[in-house]
Design goal:
elongated, 9 strands, about 350 residues, Nucleoside Triphosphate Pyrophosphohydrolase, 2 domains, 5-stranded mixed sheet, about 15% strand, two-stranded antiparallel sheet, DNA repair, Endonuclease III, domain 1, Adenine DNA glycosylase, alpha+beta
Length: about 350
């Protein structure tokens, strides 16, 4: 039995019951694939259900405000995916009359759609033999064929894509692509793969040569940058506060946050009070206290945020326009969402 037939045979017995597997609707497949980038299925599934309920069609998503989209996306991370999703929905609804491109090359032109997502949609929805290559596929192919090329190098990416394309089942490309992805996620796992009960075990190079733990190979990660965030949580006598939309092209663009002072190192209260930005925001006397006694370390892919939430109590402030009861309407980073929940508990 050849490689793709073995995987399809395994898949037909072991595949997961997922809502986007029950349709060839490109809107649903596209939505699921965007959500599952850098995200486990268990985490992404509730968001998929929430989005399809709020936005049953691409037209509904296109009509939504960006703020609404970001609010529903809150907690899923990598927020550029949500902004690209919204942009592309508007393009498809307004420029393509709601019709998704029906082939890999045209799908690849959509904002936020890369090689993997274009291949998935083209194969699942339009039966085009375009091979998907994601983390699960890298792992299966590198182990089965004993490939040591780094999966995050230009050479490795090209080599694996070419190999994947030669292996695809041209009669059932969508089924095969889902089979190899599921096989990597459920069976040929990063840790403790199920090698003793594997349909590919009699011809797997990694298993034969004892390389399962060594493959796939990844080049060393980019050095992680440390950043120091000081959020100023304003609380006035009339229960109002200040939140601002985060601008620029950095992390969390379009989300809301408390006034932020970023410093080059962790600071204490006396250093905060002497800070020029703090002085400009609070020229008059205010009561300041540190909410989290231990610095919160929020880890992103290439940066770690060392965070302190400073509660600033003041009689009033000209920038305080938001009532505390309205804060849950605004999309915020998970870091701030967790703080708000803890702060509300402590206030009770």
């Amino acid at each position: 039995m050849i490689f793709h037939n073995k995987l399809i045979y395994w898949y037909l017995q072991k595949n997961r019951d997922l809502p986007w597997r029950k349709t060839q609707n490109p809107y649903h497949v596209w939505l699921s694939e965007i959500m599952l980038q850098q995200t486990r299925v268990a985490q992404g599934l509730p968001y998929f259900l929430k989005f399809t309920e709020a936005f049953p069609t691409v037209f509904d998503l296109a009509k939504a405000t960006e703020e609404r989209v970001l609010k529903l996306w809150q907690g899923l991370g990598y927020y550029s995916r949500a902004r690209n999703l919204h942009f592309t929905a508007k393009y498809i609804a307004n420029e393509l009359n709601g019709e998704f491109p029906n082939n890999y090359k045209e799908l690849l032109k959509l904002k936020g759609v890369g090689d993997y997502t274009a291949s998935a949609i083209a194969s699942i929805c339009f039966n085009e033999p375009a091979a998907v290559v994601d983390g699960n596929v890298y792992r299966v192919l590198s182990r089965y064929f004993g490939i040591k090329a780094p999966i995050n190098s230009s050479k490795g990416i090209r080599e694996f894509k070419e190999l994947a394309q030669t292996l695809i089942n041209v009669e059932q490309p969508g089924v095969y692509n889902q089979a190899i992805m599921d096989f990597g996620a459920l069976h040929c796992k990063p840790q403790n793969p199920l090698c003793k009960d594997c349909v590919l075990s009699n011809s797997c190079v990694a298993l034969e040569k004892g390389l399962v733990k060594e493959l796939p190979v990844k080049e060393k990660k980019i050095k992680v940058k440390k950043r120091y965030f000081n959020y100023l949580v304003v609380v006035t006598n009339d229960n109002k506060t200040i939140i601002e939309e985060r601008k620029g092209k950095g992390i969390w663009q379009g989300l809301y946050q408390f006034p932020l002072i970023e410093t080059t190192k962790s600071i204490e209260i006396n250093e905060l009070l002497e800070n020029e930005e703090f002085d400009a925001l609070f020229p008059e006397q205010a009561s300041v206290s540190l909410f989290n006694k231990k610095e919160i370390v929020h880890k992103l892919s290439h940066q770690h945020l060392y965070t302190k939430f400073w509660v600033v109590k003041t009689d009033s402030h000209k920038k305080t326009t938001i009532n505390w009861s309205e804060l849950d309407k605004y999309p915020v980073p998970v870091l701030i969402d967790k703080f708000l929940k803890e702060f509300e508990i402590e206030k009770r």
